Amino acid sequence: MQLLVTGASGLLGLNLCLTGAAKGYAVTGLVNSRSLQGVPFDVQAVNLLETEKALSVIETVQPDAIIHCAAIADLNEAEADPVLAERVNGEVPGMLAEAARRWGIPLVHISTDAVFDGRRSGYIETDPQNPLSVYARTKLQGEKAVLSGYPDAAVVRTVFYGWSLSGRRSLAEFFIHNLMDGKTIKGFSDTSFCPLYVEDLAEVLLEILSAGLSGVYHVVSPEHLSKYEFGVRLAQAFGFDTSLITPVEVQAVGRGAPRSNMLILNPDKVQQALRHPLPSVDSGIQRFYQRWREGYHERLQRFAG
């Protein structure tokens, strides 16, 4: 299968491209501002905001499927430039969805748990959304554009962590780099989320493609925990001093762009569709740790062009 992945230099995009290539897919990764070198897949530089040129490049690749990961994912960046966030997160997904429908190929669109306001627990796919930030609002706009332009597409709401190109893209990397340096850090004790390790997520996305699923799915860990507890479990797995992490409440620190504190999503729908449970938080942390021991994080950073 010829798989095309947008946002191939991002945390999810890069790990997805590498996972797909390792599983025998012919992968083409689209990048924009950040280049890649020495990767085991084809790379094309494309600005998705230049619609005609971007679609021409994609059509030349002749993909059998598209997984759309590219986004303005930094909440503060989106808040500072809502027009750009709306174009990238809200409009581009609809453009890709309409093209994929015309070409008759599957599309998986990556969205976020942040489309909810966190005022209840155990969100299912049909629950009302109430985004609190520009990022979340534009990602919800993207979901709607995808399903309007291509009702048979799959939309995946998720939250993930892992090793990235820069080494600074995920919450887990933040914890590990600071703990490694012996620095004291704060972890939010009044938040809850369901983080999934990025390579686990990549494998589930490929399963969703293979199964021909469509509609909205929550692809998250079946377990939720606070960001403080997440940091403690990471420290324990790596053998770092857990006392370096201090529990704090969000209001005592502040976090810039508005966001939900309690994002607990229910993954039953995708687990039933794929006929197996999604990986737990602890199994993901162990895989994240094992990759560190293997030097995977250093390998990724060598791909930076």
Compact summary:
The protein has helices spanning 11-22, 51-61, 75-80, 82-103, 134-149, 171-180, 198-211, 227-238, 250-253, 268-274, 281-293, 296-302, and strands spanning 2-6, 26-31, 42-45, 65-68, 107-112, 154-158, 160-161, 185-188, 196-197, 215-219, 245-248. It is α/β, with parallel strands linked by helices and 305 residues long. The protein has a seven-stranded parallel beta sheet with strand order 3-2-1-4-5-6-10, sandwiched between helices.
Describe this structure in words.
This protein is of the alpha/beta class and 305 residues long. The chain has twelve helices and eleven strands. The strands form three sheets. A seven-stranded parallel beta sheet has the order 3-2-1-4-5-6-10, sandwiched between helices. The chain has a two-stranded parallel sheet with strand order 7-9. Strands 8-11 form a two-stranded parallel sheet. β5 (107-112), α5 (134-149) and β6 (154-158) form a beta-alpha-beta unit. α1 (11-22) packs across α7 (198-211), α4 packs parallel to α5 (134-149) and α8 (227-238) packs across α11 (281-293). The two termini are 27 Å apart.
List descriptors.
Rossmann fold, 305 residues, single chain, 44% helix, 12 helices, alpha/beta, seven-stranded parallel β-sheet, two-stranded parallel ribbon
Stretches where pLDDT falls below 50 for ≥5 residues?
Answer: none
Number of strands: 11
Order of helices and strands: EHEEHEHHEHEEHEEHEHEHHHH
**CATH top-level class:** Alpha Beta
Number of domains: 1
Backbone CA Rg: 18 Å
Largest sheet: 7 strands, parallel
Q: Which CATH architecture?
A: 3-Layer(aba) Sandwich
> What fold name stands as the CATH topology?
Rossmann fold
Structural class: alpha/beta
- Shape annotation: globular
- Biggest sheet strand order reads 3-2-1-4-5-6-10
Total number of helices: 12
CATH superfamily: NAD(P)-binding Rossmann-like Domain
Instruction: Kindly report how far apart the N and C termini lie.
Output: 27 Å
